[in-house]
Amino acid sequence: MISPKEQVLFSLLPAVAIGGPPHSGKSVLSYSLSRALRQRFISHYLLRAAPMDGEGDWFHEGPRELVRHLRVKGARSEAWLPLLRRDIARRHLPLLVDMGGWPTPEQETLLDECTHGVLLTPDEESRREWADRFARHGLVLLADLRSDLHGENKLEREEPVLVGTLAGLERGRMAEGPAFEALVERLTTLFSDASVDLRRRHLEKAPVELVVDLDRLAQQMGKAPYRWQPSDVPKVLAYLPAHQPLAVYGRGPNWLYAAIAAHVIPAPFYLFDARIGWVESPTLREGSLPPDSSVTWTVRPLPNLGAHLIEIGLPDAYLDIREADALGIPHLPPTGVIVSGRLPLWLWVALVRACDAPWVAVLQPQMAGAVVVRARSALPPMGTVVPLSFPLFPPL
Predict the structure, then answer these.
(1) What is the pLDDT of residue 316?
(2) Contact, 327 vs 293, CB < 8 A?
(3) Number of C-alpha atoms within 13 angstroms, CB side, residue 342?
(4) Which residue has the higher pLDDT, 194 or 58?
(5) How far apart are CA 328 and CA 350, in angstroms?
């Protein structure tokens, strides 16, 4: 975990809040910006400050009917707020922070931990409201953008604040146009200048000697970074030593992390969490959950596959790794297991390492299936996408 001295260093990294009213296209803009920055190999992390909205990258990438089935709105409480504020304050990477549409006064305090702001508003009234909100918390305004679903993309001014219009910000489309490109350029400069040698500093602090940098591994395998496919799993595992302590760094899909974490069992596995730094995968054991648990488990049979689905819910939408010791997993039948949920990466790898089943797969909405990440035998092959039809269960 981060030390006080390191906190001073990393808190100098920019955290850019993206604010505006509901349905103005903030999530589409946030996702589009993150994708554009990834294509430029700019280190950053997209943090959704309203996790109860139930939207992640899968929400923008998955088939519409599947997304409608899986999306869950509404958190049980705001118990996650102190944790989220802590993680923004202790950031290990430059952040894009999607603020959500109607922040409560408590949620608005997250802006105290941000450094810059981007306005995305459809009208003057909401623009004034959000501009005042940013000003109250001392944010440096980078861009003042108008959202117009059926309008025209245009750039009116670049300095000192970028002013323009973004059109067509709806799910299934990417932000584009001169104002968007100008904002990407501005964020590229801001994030790059603030994070010189950041990767090296992170890797130097790895808790074990053997560290896998996923970006460099992709280059060695002749792949573009961030373009991992399930079919790459066998090649990655063949490249890495089994049953040895291992740490993984860099952006990668949850199923790739899970497969590598299972590959090194029983040795410890470590990952770099963009919110909290280097962490060891917790050890989960079979048992019941306490009544006040932040997690819910549901195990249901999938007769057509001869498997069971484990659905994990986070009613408070945000889980602290310090709660892991209390997360007893349910007894699993002797079948294949598909794991489903919107979970932090450390919980994905911990679950897969704990599931001693004939095979384990991670549900992938955008693939309309589940990726096999652990198997006792050659069947099903590692990296296979088990196709699924949704809804998995008939409506009640």
Answers:
(1) 67
(2) yes
(3) 21
(4) 194
(5) 11
